[in-house]
Amino acid sequence: MRKRLCLCVGVPECSDPQLGPLPGTKVDASSVFEALTDSAMGEYDAVESVQLINPSKAEFMGALAQLSYDPDIDTLTIYFAGHGVIIDSVYYLCCSDIELDRAAYSGLSLTELFQIIGNAKPRHTNIIIDACHAAGVVHDVQSLIKPNSLGPANSFGVSILAMSATDQYAHEAPPCAPVQGGYGTLSLLKCLKGETDCQVNKSHLSLDDISKAIDLKRDDQLPNFWSFNISGSPQFCLNKSARVGSPDSLLSIPIFEDLDNPTLPSAVSEDLWKCYLDSKIEVELRELQNCLERGLLALVEPPKQANFLIGLLDSFKARCSFSDDGFAAAQINAVFVFVAQKISDQAVADEVVAFIMGQLETSLEIAISNIHEGLKEDFYLVRGGGGHSEFFSLPIRITKIAAWSLFYLDLSNGNAVETARRSKVCEAILDALERDYSGSISLLSEEQAAYIITISSLTKRHGLTEWGERFIGSLYHDYFAHGGRVARTSLALEDTYEFMKYRSLEEEVDFLRFSARPSELLFCLFAHYWNFDQLDVVRYDFSEKDGTHCTTYIPESYADFSGEVITNGGNLNFQIGHDVFTASDFDGFIRNYLSPAVYAASQPPHAMIHSIAICASLIYPDRIPWCAMGGLTADVL
Amino acid sequence: MLEMIQPSLGDDGELQLPTMMVHPSQGPKLVAELETAGLDFERRIDELKARKKLEAEENETARVNRFERRPN
What we know:
By secondary structure, chain A is of the alpha/beta class. Helix content of chain A is 44%, strand content 11%.
C-alpha cells in the first residue's frame, strides 16, 4: 500500500521579538497530528509521519524533504500553525528562527515548499495553514499551482486551505475557553472527527470537501481554498460524518492504479485553470466540458483519464461552492458525468460514471433541500434565492426548478422508501411554485421546451399528473395569449428588454430577431397533450397556428447527448396546415415518425443513459429529452 | 407553361405569381415579344389568371376546412 504521510508543525515561539508567543499552535499541531495518524480518522502512517514543535526553517525543510522524497509516498499533508507574514507581496511562514528584517532569507515561502514537492511529486499534497494573513499565499498559489508554471511537474495535485484571508488575523480560543487552539484548526478537527457534517456521501473526504464545511462562525476570519488535482480523488481523511443514510450508502472512491503521473498538454492545463478560477463566480459549463474532453483525449490511457476526472471534480466542486447558483455543484457533477462517458474503456467509464452520478445525486439533494426550505420564505426566488432573479429569467428558472426537482425524484427509482421521501419534497416544491409564483408561470423562451418534456414525462411517471396538467396547461395558455412570441434559446442579455416590449404588443410584429423558427417549443407543447392522452383538449388550436413550422432533433443514440454538436441524428419537421391539420394528424406524426426515431435512439434501453440524457437537456436546454417520455418507446413496442 | 403551374394565394388573397428570371441580354427581347403578342394573348392570360385564382381559392378553402373548428 502506498504511504500517507503528514508533517504537522506548530511554532508557538519565534526568536524575532516583533512576533509574540502563540501557545495554542502547539496544541493545534499535536491535535491535528493525533487525528491524522488515527487509523479511524486520517489513516496516515503514525510511525513515519512527523510532528515538529518550534522547528527552525532548516529543520522544517529537512523533515519536508524526508517525507516528500519517500519513494512510496502517495499523499502528503503539511499542516502549519504559527505566525504568517506578508513582506513585499511574498507570504512567509515563520519558523522559530525567523528574522523579519531578513525575511527573504529566514522565512519559509511557499515557493521553496513547492520546489521540493514539485520535484518529489507525491500523488497529492494537502497544505493547511492556520496562520495570520494565510490567504496571502494567493500570490504564490496563483503562480505556483497554475499547472503551466510547474513545467515538468505539472502532473501532481495540490490542495491548499488557508484559515484566514489576506487582511485577517487567525484567532485562537481565549485561555478561559473549554477547548484550546486556533479557531480554524478546531473547525478542521470537527470535520476530521465527524462532528461537522461535510454533506458528502463518499467514503473519504478530500480537503476540498472539508473546505466547504468549515465554518468558523466569525466575520473577522474567513478561510480560503485552492485546489488543482488531476491524479484521482485526494483522500485527506475518512468520512465520519456520513450525511446521507447509513455508512453502507457511502460511495467508495474508485482507485485506478497508474504507474506514472499523467501530464496534460500546457494549452489544456491553461484552459482548465482559467475555468477553475472563473468557476468561483459563474461556471461556463460548455467551456468546461470542452476543456475536459480535450484533456481526456490527450491522456489516452483509461486509468489516467479516470483519475483526471475524479481528481478535478473535487477541485471544481469546492470552487463553485462560492457561486450563487444553488444548482452549481449539481451542474458541475453533470458535466463531469458527460465527459466520463467518453473514457476510452467502457468498464472504467461505467465505474466512473456511476461514482460521479452518486455525487450528482448528493449535490442535487442539497440544492433541492435548500430550495425546499427557501421556498417557505416570501419572494425567495424573486430575491435571488437559488440564483437568478431577473424578471426575464424568473419564469425560466421556475420551469427549471420544477424539472430539476422531478429529475431528483426520478433518480431514486428502485428504492421505495427513498422515492417516497423525495416525492414529498418534490411535491412540496411544485406546490410552492404553483401557489407563490403563479404570476411567473410563463413561456418566454424556447429553452423551456426541454423542461416541458421533462416535466410532462416525469410527472406522468411519478403520479403527479394533475400538477403537470395544471403547470403545462398554464404555459400553453400563456403561449397562445402572447401569440406564440417566445425568445430563442440563449437570447443575448442585451436583447431581453426589447424582446419583452415586443412580446407585450397587441399587433402583429415580426419576431424573427428574437425567435427561433421553426419552433421546437410548440411541438413539445402539443406532445405534452399527446403524452397525457389529452390531444382532444387542444384539437381546435391547430388552426390558430396555421403555417407554423415545427421541428425537433433526434440523435442517433441518447448515449451521446451532451456534445456541443450532436452528429448523425436527424430532424423531424412538420408544418401546421400542410402536414398536420388535426389532433389525429399529430398523433399519426408521433406514431409514424417520432416514436420509431426515439425508440431507435434509445437502444439498448439503459436507465442510466436515459437519466444522463435528461440531465444533458437540463444543462443544455437546446435539446429535447424525448427518451424520457415512456409513451414514445412503449408505443413502438 | 403557366397552365402547368399551381400558384397559391398570398396573405392579401391575391395570386402569388411566379417570377421569370432571364439573362439581361434576353430581357428587352422578351418584353418586346410580350408587347407585340397582341390582345388575344393578353385576354388568354387574364382568363388563365382568373381560373388559377379560382382554383387556388378552392384549394385554400379545402385546405383550411381540414382543420377542426370549434362548433359555433
